[in-house]
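User: Could you write out the 3D structure of this protein bound to 4'-phosphopantetheine? I've included everything you need below.
Assistant: Certainly. Input first, then the structure.
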Amino acid sequence: MTLKIAVYPGSFDPITCGHLDIIKRSSKLFDKVIVAVLNNSQKKPMFSVSERVAFIKKCTKDIPNCEVMSFGGLLVDFVHEVGAQSVIRGLRAISDFEYEFQMALLNKKLAPDIETVFMVTNLNCLYISSSVVKEICRFGGNSEGLIPDEIINDIKDKIEKEC
Ligand code: PNS
């Protein structure tokens, strides 16, 4: 029997409660979910790839069928390499749709065997994004309910060190 494996890709700079909600829900639909952190030298992330991977590992330690990896290059190549069949993406609002639709169609053109599965965000996470979270943390705002509890202190420490 083939395992149903899904890849949940993203920048995760850093992981938010919205991301974690998608990971938890998708881990119930698939045999294995691989959270894939983009390692892209062209982007200037706040957190290094190893920090982002470590944050996600910390938040998902109780989800036995969740693995965390990083990837560079094309997503579809990574999906093939790990033997997955699906890509998961979360949708928050209509504003996400255009980009997600384009990405899903491009990935379909590159690899017709891979399906993109969209999961609608939890209503409580509708307004959360990594960029707003970073801004709130930078200016010392309360990030409870935005970033998973497990990593709030790690993120505060990192920002304090930088200032
Ligand atoms: O969290 P993000 O930044 O919206 O995630 C975007 C991501 C990582 C899914 C996307 O940039 C990606 O898949 N990059 C890898 C390069 C690739 O495959 N590009 C072609 C499809 S657009």
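The radius of gyration is 16 Å.
User: Perfect, thank you.
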